[in-house]
Every structure is written in C-alpha cells, then in structure tokens.
Amino acid sequence: MMNPVLRREAITSLRGWKNFAVLTFYLSMMTTGAIIFFYTSVYQSYRFTFDPQSVVYLYIVLGSIQMALIVLSVPALTAGSISGERERQTLDLLLVTKLSPFSIVIGKLLSSMAFVLLLIVSTLPVFSIVFYFGSVGIGSVLTLICFTLTTAFMLGGISVFFSCIYKKTVVSIMLVYIFTGILCFGTLLLVLLPMAVRGYDQLSITSTLIKLIPNPGVGFFSLMDNQMGTNIVNDVFFENGIGKNSSTLWAAKNLWVLHMVFQLVIGSVFIALAAGLINPVREHKQKNKAPKTKK
C-alpha cells in the first residue's frame, strides 16, 4: 500500500552517506546550541550556582534552532525532486508507469517529509533536558513538532512546484529561498515600515494580522509566546490596541494557529499545481522542442 516513489526514495536514500551527514550536522547544531546556552545562561560558573527556571529559555532556543534548520534544509532536500529526475533523464520512466502525476509528487514530498520527521524525532533526547527540570510539558513539545511539520509541508510543496517548472535544481533551490525570504522578511517589512512612519494609531489591526499570518517567524514566536504565557507579540505589533473585539483578540493571541492553517492550505495548493505541471504530453513537447537552425 506504500507509494512506490516513496518506497524507492526511502531505499535509495539510506544507501548513501548524504542523509547521514545531514542528520549528524543537524544533531551537532542542536547539541552545540544546548551546551552553549546551558553553560552561559543556566549554569553560572562564576557564582557556582544553578538556576533551573532558566531551562525554560533553553526550550525556546532549541525550538528556534530547529525551526531555522528546517527552513534552511527543506528547500535543499525537496527542490531537486522533479528537476533531479529530469537531469538524470529518468522522469520519462516515471511518467510511462501507471502512477499518476499526483502520486509522483506526493511520493517525492513524503520522502522529504519522512526525513524531516526523522530529524525532528532525533532531537527529542536533546529536548529531554527540558523535561528533566519540568519546565514545559509534553503537549507543548508535540505542538511545536506539529508546527514544524506544517512548515516543512508548506516549504516542501513550494519546492516541488518550482522543481516542476525549472529543469535545473540550483535554480529551483534559489527561487524557493527567495520565496521563503519574502515570507519571512517581506511581510515583516510591510508591517514595520508603516508602523514606523505612521505609528500604531493609524494602522488597521485586521490588515496587520493579514500581513503577519504568512510569516513563519512571527507564527513561531506567537507559538512560543502562547506556551510561555507572555504577551510579547501583542505588545510589539498591536500595542494593546485591539480593543474588546473577541475575534480579533483571539486571532492576535493565536496567530500561530492561523499560520498553521495558512501553511496547510498553501502547501496543498502548490502540490496540486505541481501535479498539474508534470504530464507526459508537456514533457514530450519540451523534450522534442529544439531550436531552429538556418540552412
């Protein structure tokens, strides 16, 4: 019952050394960040004291490192899924099988998502340091994992889409990073620049929310804000100007929920578009298209 593309990708990926190198690098970054934060913030060697309450900030640091690594690694893992098949001249073999274009796209995406899930699960021993001191509960960590997986799903769908359009993997990876940068920094500039020029009073709360929902960074910090019980996102972007509107108040405090819905919708849309781009007729036309030569 397993998707044939997913089964083939799982078998071939485990034969090479690249995935194991990525896993080693990923765990090294997480462990190094945890050790540095532990000895600089939690354990104060010059006082020979230990502050267990500071471990809660270790959870935020680990979550931030994991989120950044996922955002950087998913495009590199997924953007060459279809374009790589074109470069190896094996896409035609996939298209002549009984597999539909949607099954091919889903198989490629699920293979990348499975490796991302492996990366996330492998970091649970590092997160267990937080459990040992009772700073956060298992529900908070599971929510963080779900948020990270939805982010990977959206970036994976976008990567597969660009991989279907362009023949070169390098071009697909660059465009996905540009698109991700627009989501992370472009939407933030759309909010901060008018806020700096006109101030809080002249801005619409609804338009600010709409601009911030696509931003993965703001969504992540909204999740951390909600789990820690602080009100930083509201103070920075809305300055308590929401008023008594219950729906707007809920949207501002649970911006991460709206962002997860946005990620699922956008990822599904790009997957559907990617499935529509790869078909035998289109690939045959592109393959047989040759530049005209003068006699």
On the 0 to 100 scale, the average pLDDT is 81
The succession of helices and strands, N to C, reads HHEEHHHHHHHHHHHHH
SS-derived structural category: mainly alpha
Amount of beta strand: under 5%
pLDDT < 50 runs, ≥5 residues: none
Structural write-up:
This protein has 295 residues and is mostly helical. It is 76% helix and 1% strand. The protein contains 15 helices and two strands. It has helices at 4-13, 18-42, 55-78, 83-87, 91-95, 101-122, 124-132, 138-165, 169-198, 205-212, 216-228, 232-237, 246-253, 255-277, 280-288, and strands at residues 43-44, 49-50. Strands 1-2 form a two-stranded antiparallel ribbon. A hairpin with a 4-residue loop joins strand 1 (43-44) and strand 2. Helix 2 runs parallel beside helix 6 (101-122).
Features:
295 residues; mainly alpha; 15 helices; 76% helix; globular
The gist of it:
The chain is mainly α and 295 residues long. 76% of the residues lie in helices and 1% in strands. The protein has 15 helices and two strands.
Compile the SSE list and pairings.
Layout: H1 4-13, H2 18-42, E1 43-44, E2 49-50, H3 55-78, H4 83-87, H5 91-95, H6 101-122, H7 124-132, H8 138-165, H9 169-198, H10 205-212, H11 216-228, H12 232-237, H13 246-253, H14 255-277, H15 280-288
Antiparallel strand pairs: 1-2
Helix pairs in contact: 1-6, 2-3, 2-6, 3-6, 3-7, 3-8, 3-9, 6-8, 6-14, 8-9, 8-11, 8-14, 11-14, 13-14
